[in-house]
Amino acid sequence: MNFELNDEQRMLSESLTRFLNDRYDFEKRKKYVAMDGGFDPAVWKSYAEMGLFALPFSEDEGGLGGTATDTMLVAEAMGHAITVEPWLEAMVIAPELLKAGSAEQRATVAEGIIGGEIVPAYAHLEPGMIERDESLKTQENGGKLSGTKTVVGFGEEADVIFVTAVDGAGKTGIYMVRKGADGMEARGYRTQDEQRAAELTFDGTPAEKLKGGVAAEKAISSAEAKALAASIAESLGAMEEAIDLTVEYIKGREQFGRPIGTFQALQHIAAQAVVEKEQVKSMAMYAALMCEDENEENRDLAMSTAKVKMCDSSRFVGQMSIQLHGGVGMTMEYSIGRYFKRLTMLEIAWGDRDFHMDRLCAAGGLAA
Amino acid sequence: MELKFTPEEEAFRQEVRDFIDANLPDETREYMKLGNAPTKEMTVQWQKTLNKKGWATPRWPEEWGGPGWTVTQQYIFQQENQSAPAPDPLGFGVNMVGPVIIQFGNEEQKKRFLPRIANIDDWWCQGFSEPGAGSDLAGLKTRAVKEGDYWIVNGQKTWTTLAQHADWIFALVRTSNEGKKQEGISFLLIDMKSPGVEVHPIQTMDGGHEINSVFFTDVKVPAENMVGEVNKGWTYAKFLLGNERLGAPRVGASQAKLKELKEIAQKRIVRGKPLWDHPRFRDKYVEAQIELKALEMTVMRVLSGIANGADQSKPDPATSVIKIKGAQMVQRMTELYVEAAGEQAAPWIDDEGGNALVGPDWTVRAAPNYFNFRKSSIYGGSDQVQKGIISKAILGL
What is the dihedral of CA B9, B12, B16, B17, to 10 degrees? Predict the structure, then answer.
């Protein structure tokens, strides 16, 4: 049992934080969001140069062979800055899904992701699908896809889209679709948390099946578990920042002739936010350590446990941040609203609280 | 980072488990399994057994009889001992006054008191709270005035847990009214058999007699019983309370309770089916498990920090978090037992076992424990005091 970081991990976290402090303040972020494609390609390139996208890939594939703990640190830093790029797809999802592919498939795509030339997307959810593990309606037939995928992060902008679909025999597979492929229509839009997403329809769209590696279901569930673990760390970072911003605000804001932070009613709300955040910190570590567990049931129940806690804490911290800011917290002018919105979207992502409670209850809870 | 225990640590866990299985009296285990706090005799018997093995003082330095365990081993031992369930070594001695004497006491005090604390030859109680000094502990008024080689003590302590068993009390006393109120407090060890010490029981709403008022009337305390420096007692008290808060969560005990609660719910038929199969109950059970996992991870995170030399002069926000969540966890468990017992939680059962038992054995302690454990968010610095600490020390508000 050990919860300490090693020197390399500390350096990774510090250098990314330094970069984001320098390149990702509130005003710069506004500019990135307004750019075509929804983010600044120069920032993406910098992530690649810092080795973030090389982290998850094995050394054979030209990567650094990082662990989920490394991902946790990156995600936490990203949460502090509420970055808008699809780094999670590049760092976590694509590398996991590619494990279902052959060595050759992995090698070609990995190289592009590591170098920052390929922006990947993950098309899994379908309209009317409430649960992440429902059966899929998107069909593969003779190497071509037909169906609809919904709320695909950066689905319009991505160079390679990883699409989940079932074949004629009803077997789930993972298919790669290139940007601009025939029969694919992308209707892009902005999301509540200032990222981009798209509705994708496929009509006889040529796709390359990932095969030769682990089973597709295994790769998908592993990608989802690791994405969930990373999203908990990201929400931790956003909570830490939201608390800092709120505490700073109530120290400066004066009413009744004194800073409102001197009122005990507000202090105890802020203190409760710290209680919540500290538990999420513990759960982010728990999730990072458990998302690589080989026993899939243990892994998934651990992820659900961490996620339910994160949902409860995130809701408290997000709502209290707006409440303690008062009227200005409601405005676009202040950054706190952005944190609240991102936290809210993270609560919904990768299975919401009800989904994970159902999973835990069905299993009778965590094994003792 | 690594969550798993090493093979050596797992072997250690087995060794602890085997020792407990071979040595813990069945009577103690069965009595505690029913939700009873151990009797004085049970605590004394078990701590003496542990002490013979060298395990009664897990956190003490080896020089003073500690087993030289790593933080992880200490955690494993505590988890196994609590989940047995076996009595904890007496916290007032082993975790409170013992470490204060080790850290701040003189050689003579160490030699005189520490071996007797380890072997529970002396039962210790804690003289901190007073009728006028609860959350505002530094406002305490019990006075000690120096007369020759003695301190003469007058005043009243309250909420003194198990003072009826105690041979000794460690008390915070006022030795000066100069300057800030924190700067006139001293840490004094008082023999409970001294003339002028009187213990009056306080019955709590669960019907139990756990706490007391302790009165001091011209009690003569030898000057050598002062720990550390005069008027520096507040520093020692803060050190002690930090230790107390870290020990508050009793994760192992809650894990054992949750396991038992599942078995109970599987057997108990409510509206035609096992309670376990009722979705309302299952939700609450799973939510309690989630809370406990978050608490366990937070405790392990703090212990890991300590093991790796975290700066302990700075307040770790997680310590107050652990106190608040630890108290909530214990309280939540007792609520779930009452809910599982339903109307069978109703009968009042006195110390003599009077009144009719209308449900399974475990229902007897359900309501009393629920009422009793409201204390856990009040003692050792209430939730509100902890939030005050977080606001000031962590957030700078």
Answer: 70
Q: Which residues make Cβ contacts (< 8 Å) with residue B112, sequence separation at least 6?
A: none
Total-model pTM: 0.94
Other beta carbons within 10 Å of A163:
26
CB A4 within 8 A of CB B308: yes
Is B324 part of the contact surface with chain A (CB cutoff 8 Å)? yes
Chain B nearest CA to A251, separation (Å): 7
Are B293 and A309 an interchain contact pair (Cβ–Cβ within 8 Å)?
Answer: yes
Domains detected in chain A: 7-115 (1.10.540.10), 120-209 (2.40.110.10), 216-362 (1.20.140.10)
Judged on CB neighbours under 10 Å (0-12, 13-18, 19+), B261 is buried
pLDDT in tens, B177-195: 999 999 999 999 999 999 9
Q: Please report the DSSP string for B60-124 in residue order.
A: S-GGGT-----HHHHHHHHHHHHHTT-PPP-HIIIIIIHHHHHHH--HHHHHHHHHHHHTTSS-E
Q: Which two tokens stand for residue A189?
A: 């839009």
Question: Which position has the token pair 């750019």?
Answer: A35
Amino acid at B108: E
The tens digit of pLDDT for each residue in A35-70 reads 999 999 999 999 999 999 999 999 989 999 999 999
* Residue B328 touches chain A, beta carbons under 8 Å: no
Neighbours of A187 (CB within 10 A): 11
Domains and CATH numbers, chain B: 7-89 (1.10.540.10), 124-231 (2.40.110.10), 248-394 (1.20.140.10)
ipTM greater than 0.90, yes or no?
yes
> What string of H, E and C letters represents the secondary structure of A20-48?
HHHHCCHHHHHHHHHCHHHCCHHHHHHHH
